[in-house]
Amino acid sequence: MSTTGRSVRAEVRGRLAAADPGLLRFTAGLRTVLAIAATLAVLAALRFDVSHLVAGAIAAMVATFAIREKGRSQQAVTLALGLPVALVSMSLGALLNQRVVVGDLFFVALIYCAVYSRRFGDRGTALGLIGFQIYFASLFVHATAPALPGLYVVIAVAFGSAALARFVLVPQTPAGILDRLRRAFRGRFAQLVAAQAELLDAGPDELDKVVEEVRVRTARLHETALLIQGRLPDGTDDEAVARLLQRRIADAEIAAERLGLMLLTARSARRADTLTLHLPGVHLASPPPLPARDEALDRLRLDLEALRLLVLRPVGPRPGAALSVLRNRLLGYREEENLPAADPAVQDVFRGVGEAARAVLGLRIALDGPQDESDDTPATSRSREELDAEDAAIEVAEEKETGTEEPTGLRRPTTRAAVQVAVGSSLAIVGGEFLSAQRWYWAVLTCWIVFLNTASTGEILVKGYRRLLGTVLGVVAGIGLAGLVGHHTWTAFGLVLLFVFAMFYSAPLSYTLMSFFVTAMLGLLYTLLNTYSLDVLVLRIGETALGAVCGVIAAAVVLPVHTDRRTDELLVTTLDRLADVTRAATDQLSGAPPADLVEKARDLDQALADLRAAVQPLTLPITPLRSRRDTARYLVALLETCAYHARSLAATAELLPTHPAIAADPRLRGAGRRIVHNIEAIAAQVDGGRPAAEIETGPSIAAMLEPGTLRAPRYGRVTDRVLRHLQRLDEAVAGLGRPLKVPVRTPAA
After folding, report:
1. What phi and psi values does residue 442 have, to the nearest 5 degrees?
2. Host H or E run for residue 461
3. Is the pLDDT of residue 713 over 50?
4. Are strands 744-745 and 695-696 parallel, antiparallel or unpaired?
5. What value does the mean pLDDT take over residues 535-553?
6. What's residue 92's pLDDT?
7. Element (H, E) at 393
8. pLDDT tens digits, 603-625
9. In whole angstroms, what separates CA 540 from the centre of its chain?
10. Contact indicator for 22, 181 with CB cutoff of 8 Å
11. 363, 444, 676, 684 - which has most CB atoms within 10 Å?
């Protein structure tokens, strides 16, 4: 195969990996489709009728998507336990189908148990989901006691097909998923560099659009880094290797984001605000255009493209290979004598390219092992020596101690959610019976679903709204599809498989889109069962709306967790994690013993991700409280800015024992303590249960930097960078205090 063909294939693989990190969505959809297809093939060969085929398709889908455990052995045990749960659930559904009161009471009890089982982890969640969904399937196909023997065969075939798809046709191992996530990280890193390169040539009318693209791709790179961090414990046997990889991923992410800020600085003729990369819709104020013809800028464009290729493709094995030459040149920019003559801000971009190339080299060594060193330049050799010294200093982290007390009784989230969904389902059953004595269970299903993966009234309201919107659009599509398909059974099943794949592939991206595919698929299933009519699909909308309303009422009245309370709790947690990282990093930079900074930074990232998800009800475009929406967006963006600077400080502090250019400075402890105090003061203001405190002001950290320039920093380049991170963190923390109305203490003159 030609070199061009290989590069095209590598480019395509990189784009696919970046679009779907780890191919998690693709695998979930493909595995479910194959499980359903195998079930239908076996049941058709056994000459089962259409109602049994529909039941088998539902059972196979449930047996596939319910299991979320990462280890194959754990998945096999859960699947084996799920079979008797499904058989019992189908039996009870068939026996209680005609007993209205008893059947309804049992359904409510089953719903309570299914939600409560989440407290037992992934296995409890899966078994509860299987029990509920199979009972629902018995209502959908109108199962009866005489039909149970045949339905037992159907369920057994469905679970066997799910096992075949999971363990044979589409096998997945934690190590394999982690390897695909690594490729996705490379792909998204390369996409970010490509977007950053566009900053050089974007005109005034295009700049805001390009900056927004850089912001989106920066967020996607961070998302992939979090996915990798979550998979490292299961995908890597050696804890030291996992810790090394985690460190190299963090280094690459920080280097990529820093490069974007340096490019923005070169465009704006002043230091770019980190908030630019974190606040949607931010405007870069009137930057002057870069020269159209400039030798240094032409070289920078080529070097950014070289960096993109270096991320995607391995360095060739032969001495003097093209990518080796590019790598050596980019690493050379870490030496002052190799920088081209240019404006100081542009020179700083070249330094950023060199640091990004070093991060790529470290990532490549961590992922692929030792590299060929025969064509190294002195600059490349120095970079390797630094990386080797850092690797040797990385020790296995001690096991974390969790001092948080787990809530009990009705304060436990699973218990509270179980009570809420039981009450909401009871309301949905009563209301659904008024709408339709035959299909009241659609309201119950919607009420159940809006409680999945939600924790506050606002989240449930938003999820219910999105499900209703997707259902309405799906009904419109279902009307057209039912007319086209008619009674062509296998054409309908083929479209069902297509919609199932689309449903799972789109689920993490858009809940509305997923609901659309679900409803369109159900229209086809109704057609197969000869129960399709326009009235049925319109009834589906009514039952969905009723279920969503019942869920919101239950969440708002029964043991409510208001969105404000939920976001405040998560905001306090995020601030506490930010204080932990900042304190540990500044202490280590001031000479304290080493701490587990990477793990602390990971905890901060996870807390911030939870907060970002919880504030979605407050930041939707349809939110009527515009000032509240803008405040929520601003706070989250500022926290992301704080997290970036805290991660950068932590990464630099971890280099302290090995890096020749970094030395501990006790003077940093004072600045760090003030920042930590201010973070804790903000947390106390939000919490309300802590003693009130004031934000302290004092001499600006920027004052320490005034004599320095981009070309000649006052304290040395690494120390200068540490001070600037502290300065930006100090400013961002003070910015957090203003909208939260934290009092400020002005020092006495």
Report:
1. -65, -35
2. helix 457-485
3. no
4. parallel
5. 85
6. 94
7. helix 378-393
8. 899 899 889 888 888 777 666 66
9. 32
10. yes
11. 444
pLDDT of residue 109: 92
Q: How many CA atoms lie within 13 A of 636 on its CB side?
A: 24
Rounded Cα distance between 672 and 668, Å, is 6
Q: Rounded CA gap, 26 and 86, in Å? A: 26
Q: What is the dihedral of CA 545, 549, 550, 554, to 10 degrees?
A: 160
Helix, strand, coil shares of the chain, percent, nearest 5, are: 75, 0, 25
Contact partners, residue 689, CB within 8 Å, separation at least 6: none
Measuring CA to CA, which residue among 281, 277, 278, 280 is closest to residue 265?
A: 277
**Cα distance between residue 77 and residue 296, in whole Å:** 61
2 half-sphere exposure, CB direction, 13 A CA radius: 3
By C-alpha distance, which of 51, 54, 57 is closest to 38? 57
How far apart (Å, rounded) are the C-alpha atoms in residues 563 and 549? 17
Cα–Cα distance measured from residue 115 to residue 118, given in angstroms and rounded to the nearest whole number: 6
What is the rounded distance in angstroms from the CA atom of residue 725 to the CA atom of residue 648?
Answer: 7
pLDDT band at 707 (very low <50, low <70, confident <90, very high): very low
The enclosing H or E element of 311 equals helix 295-312
Please, what sign has the CA dihedral across residues 388, 393, 396, 399?
Answer: negative
Tell me the C-alpha to C-alpha distance, in Å, between residue 138 and each of 53, 132, 246, 464: 13, 10, 47, 24
Cα angle for residues 317, 323, 325 (degrees, 5° grid): 100
Among 426, 407, 447, 479, which residue's Cα sits nearest to residue 548? Answer: 447
Residues 632 and 563: beta-carbon distance below 8 Å: no
Q: How far is CA 666 from the centre of its chain?
A: 38
Q: 298-335: b or e for each residue (b if 16 or more CB lie within 10 Å)?
A: eebeebbebbbbbbbbebeeeeeeeebebbbbbbbbbe
* Strand residue runs (E) in 537-691: none
Mean pLDDT of the chain: 82
Written as one letter, the residue type at 421 is V
Q: What are the pLDDT digits (tens) for 433-451?
A: 888 877 788 888 888 888 7
Q: And the tokens for 619?
A: 């930041």
The structure's pTM equals 0.83
Q: Which residues have C-beta within 8 Å of that of residue 524, sequence separation ≥ 6?
A: 478, 481, 482, 485, 492, 495, 496, 499
How many helices and strands in the chain, by DSSP H and E? 26, 2
Mean pLDDT of 492-502: 89
